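To: structure desk
From: M.T.
Subject: fold request, one chain
Message: Could you run this one when you get a chance? Sequence is below, nothing fancy, just the single chain.
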Amino acid sequence: MLRKIELTDANDIFRTIDSYREYFRKWLPFVDYTTNVTDSVAFIESIYECPVEMQECVFVLRVEEVE
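Reply: Done. Structure tokens follow.
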């Protein structure tokens, strides 16, 4: 499922960054500055605090496991 990012995504975003830190570091400069879930929360809040005309479209891709 592809949808706009929400505050409820913060834990999963941080957990993913933290789990693949070495791999992501090669391409994503913010990885070293994302040290806890509050950093992910702050990122998401910054998106929505921006004036609407300046907001970027940020999406999450959610994959549900099929048993």
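Reply (cont.): The CA atoms of residues 38 and 56 lie 20 Å apart. Let me know if you need anything else for the meeting.
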